[in-house]
Design a protein that fits this description.
Elements lengths: L7 E5 L19 H8 L10 H9 L6 E9 L2 E10 L7 E3 L2 H4 L6 E2 L2 H13 L4 E7 L4 H8 L4 E15 L13 H17 L2 E6 L3 H16 L2 H5 L7 H17 L2 E8 L2 E11 L2 E9 L8 H15 L4 E3 L6 H6 L4 E11 L2 H26 L3
Parallel strand pairs: 4-6, 11-12
Antiparallel strand pairs: 1-2, 2-3, 3-4, 3-5, 6-13, 7-12, 7-13, 8-9, 9-10, 10-11
Helix pairs in contact: 2-9, 4-5, 7-9
């Protein structure tokens, strides 16, 4: 679709992970993969990368419809936004990964021209679209709102933010950034750990040939925690395990993967799965062995990696996930605010989506009022 105010944009089916097919020349002879890697220089989130998309498309989204909104002009590609949806007449498009791994997502664009092209294409199509957990400062949000004018409705609401710690040289000794009570807790936990054996910490950058063994060790630690019973452990979900294995193996190939361990007498009792990417430490998964809960191994490993990241000169420690009470109480109250954006085109599909969302919101409010009025 061409637009006088923006570069051309069109939806295009994207080959899933492992396919060698391509859409042709879209960046002066480069294929889509090369163009996407080139655009990653503009990315603000690791969830905007091609590696993240291809791993998801082959695993957690294997049964979904996937399309790519792509903005390009005579100079080449200017923006990319992967979308997915369930099958069904009234199924909505949504940003790839937001529902599957609950991480913040955003359009990947070179400039406003690319953002405008993608937004106009989305506003012109006939299905509602849900943008979950887009960073509040995203330049794509106001462009998308403007594109929907005269095409339907758009709703913007606050979403769960992402906690982080802004690092500087003070965090090279992270214990000093917390109050006396917390410092006492750290020392007590370390003493208890030492009583059980020799304590060691490591932050590893595994080579591809080392990846599987270390990844298996990390997810085995997570299985020895409450996450196994809750069903949230990576290894408890085959598709989720395949996704993280594919995505993180790619990170290992690029030298970005960081696997951190706390060990007691050589046994891994806490682990972290993270990326060092674009000058930040991005924490994707944590886990600890419940048998060692008394010495708080997860807390001690978190303390270690915060100091490690600061000593590497990284700009921030990004916890991803949601702002949860244990994070705010123990580590940081800082967070990156996020927004949710929903479009409702002026057609039957848009009307159905609007009614469903309205009913869902009303049910939520009634449930809240019932809990306030009727004692448990």
């Amino acid at each position: 679709m061409e637009d006088s105010a923006a570069a051309g944009a069109h939806r295009e089916a994207v080959p899933r992970s492992g396919s060698t097919a391509g859409p042709g020349n879209i960046w002066q002879g480069r294929n889509l993969i090369e163009a996407w890697h080139w655009l990653e220089g503009e990315a603000q989130l690791p969830t905007q990368t091609l590696a993240f998309y291809t791993a998801l498309s082959a695993t957690l989204l294997a049964g979904s419809e996937i399309e790519l909104v792509k903005a390009s002009d005579e100079l080449g590609i200017r923006g990319i936004l992967p979308l997915c949806r369930d099958r069904g007449l009234f199924a909505r498009w949504r940003m790839v990964g937001a529902r599957e791994v609950f991480e913040p997502i955003d359009a990947l664009c070179l400039d406003d021209r690319g953002r405008q092209a993608i937004a106009h294409q989305i506003a012109a199509q006939d299905r509602p679209v849900t943008f979950d957990r887009v960073p509040q400062g995203s330049a794509f949000i106001p462009v998308m709102q403007a594109a929907m004018q005269g095409k339907g409705l758009v709703r913007r609401r606050a979403a769960q933010g992402c906690p982080f710690i802004a690092l500087d040289e003070r965090w090279q000794e992270p214990e000093a950034q917390y109050n006396a009570g917390r410092r006492s807790d750290f020392r007590r936990a370390m003493r208890r750990a030492g009583e059980q054996g020799e304590v060691s910490f490591s932050v590893l950058s595994p080579r591809p040939d080392q990846f599987d063994a270390l990844f298996d060790e990390a997810i085995a630690v997570e299985l020895r925690s409450w996450k196994k019973e809750a069903g949230t452990a990576i290894a408890a979900d085959r598709a989720k395990e395949m996704f993280f294995r594919d995505f993180l193996r790619s990170a290992a190939c690029e030298g970005n993967l960081r696997l951190a361990f706390m060990r007691i007498d050589g046994r891994a009792v806490a682990m972290q799965i993270a990326l060092e990417w674009h000058g930040r430490f991005w924490l994707f998964k944590i886990g600890f062995d419940e048998d060692y809960a008394r010495c708080s191994p997860g807390t001690l490993l978190m303390l270690h990696t915060i100091g490690w990241a600061a000593n590497q000169g990284l700009g921030s420690y990004e916890m991803l996930g949601n702002v949860e009470p244990w994070i705010a109480e123990f580590w940081t109250t800082e967070n990156h605010p996020c927004l949710s954006l929903r479009t409702y085109p002026a057609n039957l599909a848009g009307l159905v989506a609007l009614v469903v969302d309205g009913v869902g919101g009303m049910v939520g409010k009634l449930h809240y009022l019932a809990r306030r009025i009727i004692p448990a």
